[in-house]
Specification:
- The strands form 3 sheets. The protein has a two-stranded antiparallel ribbon with strand order 1-2.
- With 138 residues, the chain is an alpha+beta fold.
- The protein folds into 2 domains: 31 residues; 86 residues, Homing Intron 3 (I-Ppo) Encoded Endonuclease, Chain A, CATH 3.90.75.20.
- It is built from 5 helices and 6 strands.
Length: 138
């Protein structure tokens, strides 16, 4: 069964003639529609993005002392979250929000060895060499 246009060819022709005779009116209507529905940066005006730590903690389950992040994960099993247009690792976001900045030249070691754990008590800033030594030892 073929598609049948509910408006019919006469209505389409009338619309086409209107667009041809009044291009300035059509342009004004299109501009008004665009401005009315325009959303800068994909966010409605006045809406402020929620902090990453708030969004992160909504997706945490506490199991045996570990705060397990159940959101998106990397291929290595580390939690990921978007913040200010970039992807960050969730254990780093949680540590910085609860403890403070990670010292320059150090990385966070999961003392519990659970990569999606975001409990700051299970994270320790160490050198890369120490982190690798501990990973091989466990």
């Amino acid at each position: 069964m073929a598609y049948k246009d509910p408006q019919g060819p006469a209505a389409r022709a009338s619309q086409r003639r209107y667009r041809q005779r009044h291009p300035e009116r059509v342009a004004a209507i299109q501009r008004a529609y665009h401005l009315k529905n325009y959303v800068p940066n994909g966010r409605p005006p006045g809406k402020v993005p929620r902090p990453a730590i708030d969004r992160l903690m909504e997706k945490v389950d506490v199991v045996d002392g570990c705060w397990l992040y159940r959101g998106g994960k990397s291929s290595g099993g580390y939690g990921k979250i978007s913040e200010a247009g970039e992807t960050r690792l969730t254990h780093r976001v949680a540590y910085e929000a609860n403890v403070g900045p990670i010292p320059e030249g150090l990385e966070l070691d999961h003392l519990c060895r659970v990569t999606n754990c975001v409990n700051p008590d299970h994270l320790e800033p160490v050198t890369h060499a120490e982190n690798m030594r501990r990973a091989r030892a466990s």
